[in-house]
């Protein structure tokens, strides 16, 4: 009997010895059971060096992800088997883990790879049109739908929203609100056509009898998602009509502070919302119409007591996962005229963070039925005319940051020719003069001269003597009836009380002698019917057919109107010709640069896209004949500008934003001269100067020769600090400070990085120059550079 036990022990020992050499064969069956395979690989020391190489070749889509997971998860599993681990060599024991594919779980089995570029892979889930973007560099992924919906207690509508790649809203007959259609709660059929760079999906919501196509194509910079309007078929439009679309609204979503990073919203210069657990503090999302309020459809409450929020002038939104080093910027390439940017911090509606664009084809509005008959619900008589083209710029690694995405946006704009008219302009400071306003008099109105042409000439002469070598000059209120009474600006008629045509000619010549160009401001959109009564028939009408008007809260003219786009084009052509014939070389356009809306004209509905086309034609005509500055221009007009003015330095300071970022400045740097909003209306001028240095922006001042108290009984009573004698020395000092910076970074220098550590900021320019700034109340240090409170230091590219 003892011999049997000895023999049995010998057999068992031999079996254990053989098992050490049979692990490679068992590894072939790893797909059958993942956990045992991991254990077997973990003890397979002899074969580890050979295993990773073929896997990296066969599965290039997730190499980095496999390595990351192998370094983390299996390490915890080795601890219980302490004695066995000690028997092996520790370094070799970790290497076999790299042969396993635990990170493959990041790509669920019901997704398939459909495209790739040099940096990213694209996966598709066919039944919901969901996609996953995966970085080849580090294995990080961006999901477009929630992967564990059963773990969340949201209602069916929200679950349908965040489990569908594309979400549609429709109007059922004429209801007060849109109804959602998605791939979870609605009957649908999706058929696919695949291409090398992506796919086209034909979607049929069979219960609604609505069909459309969506194309997803991978480019070297990211993804293009396109929904052509002519692919939309409404087989029962009286009952079900398309209202809006979301294209991958949940791409990159985060849940309740589980990830590190932020949302990017286009508020002013740009702002970020951290992906932290907000503990339910916020009740409303960021939801803004691109390019400002649609006054033709939406009701606006005007007030002279509140400061309005910043309009969205760039059609972008984004998200960055800083812990995973992956992020995207959504760019609305087409459909921007009818889009909203929406950003939901967690706690608003749900526990997720997400940001997206909503494209509105139709809306329901209140149609007045008469003074005593009330209103009735009505929907737009037709869909707005536009295709949806949404581009996702993708970044990973070190460029997965708001600065990296701003640089990507700049490169995108350059590729699209958005800065085709930009000129190489020396650093200068913008000086805007207020010439003439009007006030009520005994039997009418009288001129209030704030800066005559001769006085403006004296100002630029004195500034030149103070060392201000280059100035961009804009004259406001130069025309008959002045700044408010002289709109629309449709003829070359310099006010006689300012010096008339001869006085303007002398000013223009003096400016040219000093190396500056004088631009005259023109507003061809605003309408003062007191001074232009014959144009009342051309006043803009809302979709309800009501004539639009707004209160001025002024002392002389209480109401202003807007012209129809076609009338604005006529006024624009007239003033462009008048200035050209009058020897003027430059124009500063305002009004058309800041408004877009739907409207009613010739008994028909017209959408904002038609208005945009008209305004673009005015800017194009101006830019073809004159040096053109655009005031606070919306992004679609940038291509027609030699310079842009009145650009925001900050944002609206919403409660849910965690930091303001110079996203717009980074995107524009080196491409087009941009001037900030007026310095002399800033509460903290030193902090404002710091932001100009941070953003590479140029300063602008609004000046008058006379004390602005003279304006108290005019429509420009809001100009409270503009007298030149108060700002002459300041302009000269700022000019020296900022021109030195621009010489260091180069007139065509571009910002390539922007980093923030608390109150400390480092801005990096393309020639290697770094600008460090401390916006805090206490001294600080960054990269070994020590700074006192509210100070900065320039470290040039050569280290000095």
Give a description of the structure.
By secondary structure, the protein is α+β, with helices and mostly antiparallel strands. 24% of the residues lie in helices and 29% in strands. It contains 16 helices and 45 strands. Strands 7, 8, 9, 10, 11, 14, 15, 17, 18, 23 and 37 form an eleven-stranded antiparallel sheet that branches. Helix 9 packs parallel to helix 11 and helix 12 packs parallel to helix 13. The N terminus is likely disordered.
In a nutshell, what does this entry contain?
The protein is α+β, with helices and mostly antiparallel strands. The strands form 10 sheets. Strands 7, 8, 9, 10, 11, 14, 15, 17, 18, 23 and 37 form an 11-stranded antiparallel beta sheet that branches. The chain has an 8-stranded parallel beta sheet with strand order 38-36-35-32-28-27-24-39. Strands 5, 6, 12, 13, 16, 19 and 20 form a 7-stranded antiparallel beta sheet that branches.
